[in-house]
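Risk register update: the risk of archive-format incompatibility is retired. Evidence:
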Amino acid sequence: MSSSEPLYIETHQKGLLQEKIKTARAIFRACSICPRKCGVDRLTGQTGICRTGEKAWVSSYHAHFGEEAPLVGNNGSGTIFFTHCNLMCSFCQNYDISHEGRGREVSDEQLAAMMLQLQKQGCHNINFVTPSHVVPQILSAVAIAVSSGLSVPLVYNTSGYDNVETLKLLEDVIDIYMPDFKFWDPEVAKITCRAPDYPEVARNAFMEMHRQVGNLVTDELGIARRGLLIRHLVLPGGLAGTRDIMRFIAQKISPESFVNIMPQYRPAGKAYEIKELSDYLSIKDYKAALQMAREEGIYQGGLG
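Archived output:
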């Protein structure tokens, strides 16, 4: 296999993709596809935290030019925004999609058609946004799309609240993992997402993602082909625990990790319920986060 060829092509050719689909769909019978482990039978239409049954919901899909430069290039990243979420941050910037359910139910065939259309438009990759609760549907749609000529890298754009067991089903399918390490403190994760296990889950997920794809690799034009691209949204008042997260990345993942430290926090959704989150991020807090990253040994990516 060519080093520039997406991983899923060989996986499909070997017949392994169908095995992954079968395993993933079986998990839906008592759903534990994500760390919430709701235990509902999604194949019969039951839903848990993510309010998604057998079929995925999509809010929108289009060429996106606001993503990280290695994904965007000249033609954009082919983003598919999934409706609903398994983490449900109270301050979500896409609250209408994640909490209020803006979008429509789609079949696996329709999802595959979206991928092929984005590729036809010239997008450099297919970027699955908020995919943690719809992994079986993604696998099934990829199998359909690759049979019709899909050949661009796949991006798994996630909150980091992912089961290692589920991530292992994505090995040799996903080319680029793009998780956002949101919080270090379990108490912050509890009050914002009702997920006190988030920090531990995210640490394990990040290590598994890096094991699969390694550090970010780009081609001669600077376009991402494979690897781990890490995001970190800085929160007001230091609530995200930036220093601890950067230290973890440098020591347990790789000091060569590509990390985008993001300054675009704004109070959205129910952010007003938490005093520290009821205002915009200050320039002072953002610059402090950048300095923390450098002090902990992180230099690659969006560090200003």
